[in-house]
Amino acid sequence: xxxxxxxxxxxxxxxxxxxxxxxxxxxxxxxxxxxxxxxxxxxxxxxxxxxxxxxxxxxxxxxxxxxxxxxxxxxxxxxxxxxxxxxxxxxxxxxxxxxxxxxxxxxxxxxxxxxxxxxxxxxxxxxxxxxxxxxxxxxxxxxxxxxxxxxxxxxxxxxxxxxxxxxxxxxxxxxxxxxxxxxxxxxxxxxxxxxxxxxxxxxxxxxxxxxxxxxxxxxxxxxxxxxxxxxxxxxxxxxxxxxxxxxxxxxxxxxxxxxxxxxxxxxxxxxxxxxxxxxxxxxxxxxxxxxxxxxxxxxxxxxxxxxxxxxxxxxxxxxxxxxxxxxxxxxxxxxxxxxxxxxxxxxxxxxxxxxxxxxxxxxxxxxxxxxxxxxxxxxxxxxxxxxxxxxxxxxxxxxxxxxxxxxx
Length: 408
Prior knowledge:
Blueprint: H1 10-21, H2 41-53, H3 66-82, E1 90-94, H4 97-116, E2 122-126, H5 131-140, E3 143-147, H6 157-163, E4 168-174, H7 186-194, E5 199-203, H8 211-216, E6 233-237, E7 249-253, H9 256-263, E8 265-267, E9 275-277, H10 287-323, E10 328-330, E11 338-343, H11 348-357, E12 363-365, E13 370-374, H12 383-396, H13 400-407
Parallel strand pairs: 2-3, 2-4, 4-5, 5-6
Antiparallel strand pairs: 1-7, 6-7, 8-9, 10-11, 11-13, 12-13
């Protein structure tokens, strides 16, 4: 495509965009199980209003847009309260979980260099940790050391203890991890790190805005937040189970001085004056900050607990229905709303293809081959329809050996 000589009229552009959009996954109809977290129409309407109100502003300069700076501080404060951050904590918003994780890794690298003289740092993370940690290691010049999983799909503690050494800049645990929805043994991993003066990060990008309300529902929640001694940083995505629009995440430090010393970027060596940022981005879209602030205050604790209850009911319905299909089973013991399942009778990837035919978007996994779900409140309305199509898919899909024959 080339830049048009004459501009295309607005109506024609919108018509073309609507046509193209018909090819996209139907998240609004609760047909997707990742990427978008639909809550309800009331939430969607508020998010649209908040985004439009701050569509053009730039959050880079708080002196010019003080309302944005205060909203960011408010979002960080509310997140810190949910995750039991102690007095003296620090934090900032980022564009998403990947950026929050990158900043936590870079801050840990700088701390290890400054306090322990580590020049060839490693990052010790479970095999199930999000790829953002591998990306952060690559960008930050750390060696990624993966901890194998135990029989429960959690980080193997004995292996972790062997792999943590004087070069380790950061130890990681997930609450929960993406592939299986299990929570690593955070207190034990954080204890191993703290005993050597090493930073520990809880990746609660998925759980940070659901586990606190899961707990209020009376559901068991493993220790994962700042109540655990040794947890030095955490990440939590407002644009996941906080239900705001992309991209809004929070990275928190137990100690604000670590945020300032090891994460903040301050520069004066050019003619343009003071340049200060806490994350990767320079210019920052204002709309995600405003939307996050609005939805947190609109829903409040009562609203989030209600949505968590809807998720819990949907999860119970999905998992019971999956287990009732011959040959199907849930992998591991997922702790929250994220889980994967497979079949011992049919090829799970072929089942996924069959579900595609019915308009359901299930992510594929390997090691083992499985299908993956992240459940949102709106999914409560489609449990029965989904399970009926899944039973059909399981009965009509071939086996793994059939797949091998097709590609041999």
